[in-house]
Amino acid sequence: MSRKHHHFKGAEVSCCVKYFLFGFNILFWLLGAAFLGIGLWAWAEKGVLSNLSSITDLGGFDPVWLFIVVGGVMFILGFAGCIGALRENTFLLKFFSVFLGLIFFLELTAGILAFVFKDWIKDQLNFFINNNIKAYRDDIDLQNLIDFAQEYWSCCGAHGPDDWNLNIYFNCTDLNPSRESCGVPFSCCVKDPAEDVINTQCGYDVRRKRELDRQQDIYTKGCVGQFEKWLQDNLKFVAGIFVGIALLQIFGICLAQNLLSDVKAVKANW
User: Fold this and answer.
1) Are 22 and 84 in contact (CB under 8 A)?
2) Do residues 74 and 32 touch, judged by C-beta distance below 8 A?
3) Residue 181: other Cβ atoms inside 10 A
4) Any transmembrane segments, and where (predicted)?
């Protein structure tokens, strides 16, 4: 009897691991809730529910979906990790560690495939940007995302300013009644440091000019090439972010497995 009691006392759940995992996931959960809340709010503001046809419109990427998907996954994982740690629930702890491990494996696989199929990824990026150029005026969030990318990377279009011919408002056909015909968005314009107010009409008619004259007014390099250059210049920074995320995931899995083994050891002595 005394030996059994001594063995029971030897198997216990580590409070340090338990509450550290809980704290780790409460932040994860709250961050996921914030992302999900922002995504759902933006989704409702656009009136998507009143126009169900917009859900099936895949012409351009909607940044709201990124918030909803990422926020939803983080919220579910954070919830499972929090409740699993607090209640010492083996099912939720297993779900948390397995799902987090699956995400880590998918990220690793995606990284390897991206390295092996670099040319295919480049073609898909080109296709993706051109699709979003077509849908530039269809969604304000998409418009802001493209403007940010073009300003940040000092680029215009996928491979150059003429890619904006794909957009019905900016194309150069004689039948185009738009005032923006043969132009580019203001985010393609070379910024004048002396100007405090953004001139949103700076891209009007700019593609009617000769190539050399354009270079004074707008960026002439494509975003695909500029993005590749940015990746090469910031390779250590980008790699550090991915390694940091991977280490956090491995750390979370180890904590969950450690707590899971403690709970199983205690239950085995009941």
Assistant:
1) no
2) yes
3) 19
4) 20-44, 64-86, 98-117, 237-260
- The answer to whether the CB of 48 falls within 8 A of the CB of 55 is yes
The full set of domain ranges for the chain reads 15-160+221-269
Handedness of CA 269, 78, 253, 17 (dihedral sign): negative
Tens-place pLDDT, residues 142-187: 888 899 999 999 999 999 999 999 999 999 988 889 999 999 999 9
Token couple for 93: 């702890």
Tokens of 207: 């593609």
Q: Output phi, psi for 156, to 5 deg.
A: -150, 115
- Give the tens place of pLDDT for each residue, 210-255: 888 898 899 999 998 999 899 889 988 988 988 888 898 898 899 8
Side chain identity, residue 7: H
How far is residue 65's CA from residue 71's CA, in Å, rounded to a whole number?
10
User: Based on the number of CB atoms within 10 Å of its own CB, is 84 exposed (0-12), middle (13-18) or buried (19 or more)?
Assistant: buried
Q: Are 228 and 241 in contact (CB under 8 A)?
A: no
Cβ(220)–Cβ(159) below 8 Å: no
pTM here is 0.70
Contacts of 78 (CB under 8 A, 6+ apart): 25, 26, 27, 28, 29, 30, 31, 32, 33
CB 104 within 8 A of CB 65: no
CA–CA gap between residue 168 and residue 164 (Å, rounded):
9
Closest alpha carbon to 17 in 258, 198, 226: 258
Question: Rounded to whole angstroms, how far apart are CA atoms 255 and 21?
Answer: 6
